Structure formats: C-alpha cells, structure tokens
Amino acid sequence: MNSAGSSRAHNGFLRLLEIGAASAKLGLTSFGGPVAHLGYFRDEYVVKRKWLDERGYADLVALCQFLPGPASSQVGIGLGIIRSGLLGGVVAWLGFTLPSALAMALFALALHGTPVAQAGWLHGLKLVAVAIVAQAVLGMGRSLASDRPRATLAVAAAAFALLAPSAVTQVALIAAAGLFGAWRFRRAVEAPPEPVRVPVGRAAGAISLALFAALLVALPLLRQTAPGMGLALTDSFYRAGALVFGGGHVVLPMLEREVVPAGWVSPETFLAGYGAAQAVSGPLFTFAAYLGAAAAGGAGAALATAAVFLPGFLLVVGALPFWNALRTHARMQGALTGINAAVVGLLLAALYDPIWTSAVRTPADFATAAVLFGLLVFWKLPPWAVVLTGAFLGWALSLGLV
C-alpha cells in the first residue's frame, strides 16, 4: 500500500474510533427516551463535533421519523454512515446500543428463577410501566392525533387491536392506516433543502431495501419449515423491529404478542423488564436483550438484539440515497400521518392489555400508578428516579407499609 493509501486507511480508522467513543458516551449517558436522545445527538454531533449542519441534521431526523424502527438509533446510525460509510454506521449502533443491552441482559439473567409475581419491588416496576406508557400515550396523542380525524383513527385502531388481539391485526391496522392517510391526509410538501451527502449509492440502497423485504417474507417461512428456538427468536424480533412506527414504547405490544403467548416469557416477567428498561440509558429497543436473555440466555439476548435492530439499519441504508425524492411526495407524507395516528391507538390498547390488566389489581395499585404518573408528567422527574420510586413503593405495598 502506498503512502496515500496508508494515510487514508489511518484516517478512516481514527474516524471509526472517534465514532465509537462518541456513540458509547451517548449510550452511557442518554436518558429520557427517543426525543431526549435526539437532543443529546444534536449537542454532540452538530454543536460540538460539527459532523453535520443544523439543516442536514433536521433532514436526517425527518427521515428516521418517517421509517419504521427505533428512530433515535436510526439517527445515530445515519450519522455514523455520513461520517464514515457503512462501517461507521455499525460502530455508531454498537456504541449507542451495547451499554443498555448488556445491562438489560444481565438484569434478566439475575432474575432467572426469581418468583416475579410475588416480589413486591418487581410488582412496583409493573406499576412504573403503567405510568410510563400512559405518559407516552398522552404525549404522542397530543402531537400525532390532535385533531378529530386522527383521534378517530387512533381510537378505531385501539378498538380493533383489543377486539382481535394478534400480530396480524397490528400489521393490518398499520397498513390500513397508511392507505387511509395517503387519501385523507395528503398535502403539498415544500421543496427540500440542500441534500445531505452520504457515501451510499442508490444500488447499495436498493440492495438493502430488497434484503429488508426478503427477510421479512423469508423468516416466517423458514420458521415453519425448520423449527428451532434461534430461528423463532430471529423471526419474532425482526418482524417487531420491521413493523413498529413511533419508537421504543410502541414496540411493546408487538413484542408482547410474540413472546408471551409462545411461553418464552411470563406476563409478570415481561412487565417487570419493561419497567426496568426505563432506568437505563440508550434506546428502549434494548428491551429485546432482556426478553432474549429471559427466553434463551446470553445467546438469546445477542440474537434478539441484533434481530430487532437489523430492519432499522437496513431501512436507513436503503432510504438515505432516495430520501430527497421521497420527502416531496404528498401521498407518502399523508400515509405517514395516518400510520402515526394508528400507532397511538395501538399503544393505547397496550396500556389496557397487557399493562393495566396485569399490574393494577387493587385500589392501592391504582393509587401507586397515579402517583408515579404524576411524578413523571407534573413533577418532571427523570424516568430512572420514577423507576426507583416505583420499586420502593411496590416493596412497601408488599409489606403493608403503605
């Protein structure tokens, strides 16, 4: 290799180290959910490091809000790709994801064999889940279903999801909402600003989108022809990551329909883990690491985590080269509006079943959940503080102290 090639390789390696260090720092310190993560990313990558200007960052956020998957993680992946190609995207994902994924997997392994239903502090985590999801429904409803047509769509989606509870129903509701939105909410879109340059060509983007679709179709078929825990986990978590809009909280009903009826995880263990997920930094999608570990140990945690994030990664790689054309399409914007309203309804249905029905069984449970909700919404306490409070109150309830 000549000196110019050696210098490029050295600079590329240094860039990857820089991406890894920056994303790991964010993975360890980014509390507060997807919206807060976007603020952390802006401060680190736009203001401090100047990897992207404000308008370019806004474009990337818009793209990731449009796609299914974990929006904040996809923004981080996109920034890594813009900075250093596909490998940069992988490094950015690993840095942001591994801290919380490891914490959640270790929590699941530590709980192995614990009688979850009888543990007071774990029951408190289930009540934390009630408060967290109620807050998410309230916030998302205000921004994504604030007028009569969208609110009606959200309520209808919730009703259908509760009356016919299955993963197929959820997928059908999302598809129907997209079609309805393309007709009802289509609107003119302003000309886009200067496009963000990314080192991914349209051919690579098309291959990534084709792989995304192929896996979505092939994994369920392979699961039927070659039964096994590994393939079943991959299919379930890949499908959840591929079909969820609206971020981490909305993946809850998708994952619950996959892991609880199959007997991989009990309802009590599921909700205890979801409550604990609020106390860790990084993306909420690392709840998959907890479920994978609870179902199949360390290997299950790694497989579930990779599977739930893979669709989002493929979609970012596939969409970046085409985004500037897609974002000017009025019907595409309308479809997204309809889908976002429907996911508010899906989350509302999940608030009732499985969360409310499994956690709130006595007046004291309701009172505790109401207090936790007030701490989140009115007192603006950080989620980790509410998690600790919920665990303490659950323990105190179990001993009859409150």
UniProtKB/TrEMBL annotation:
<feature type="transmembrane region" description="Helical">
    <location>
        <begin position="271"/>
        <end position="293"/>
    </location>
</feature>
<dbReference type="InterPro" id="IPR003370">
    <property type="entry name" value="Chromate_transpt"/>
</dbReference>
<keyword id="KW-0812">Transmembrane</keyword>
<keyword id="KW-1133">Transmembrane helix</keyword>
<feature type="transmembrane region" description="Helical">
    <location>
        <begin position="153"/>
        <end position="183"/>
    </location>
</feature>
<keyword id="KW-1003">Cell membrane</keyword>
<dbReference type="Pfam" id="PF02417">
    <property type="entry name" value="Chromate_transp"/>
</dbReference>
<feature type="transmembrane region" description="Helical">
    <location>
        <begin position="86"/>
        <end position="109"/>
    </location>
</feature>
<comment type="similarity">
    <text>Belongs to the chromate ion transporter (CHR) (TC 2.A.51) family.</text>
</comment>
<feature type="transmembrane region" description="Helical">
    <location>
        <begin position="300"/>
        <end position="323"/>
    </location>
</feature>
<feature type="transmembrane region" description="Helical">
    <location>
        <begin position="203"/>
        <end position="222"/>
    </location>
</feature>
<feature type="transmembrane region" description="Helical">
    <location>
        <begin position="335"/>
        <end position="352"/>
    </location>
</feature>
<feature type="transmembrane region" description="Helical">
    <location>
        <begin position="121"/>
        <end position="141"/>
    </location>
</feature>
<dbReference type="InterPro" id="IPR014047">
    <property type="entry name" value="Chr_Tranpt_l_chain"/>
</dbReference>
<keyword id="KW-0472">Membrane</keyword>
<feature type="transmembrane region" description="Helical">
    <location>
        <begin position="229"/>
        <end position="251"/>
    </location>
</feature>
<protein>
    <submittedName>
        <fullName>Chromate efflux transporter</fullName>
    </submittedName>
</protein>
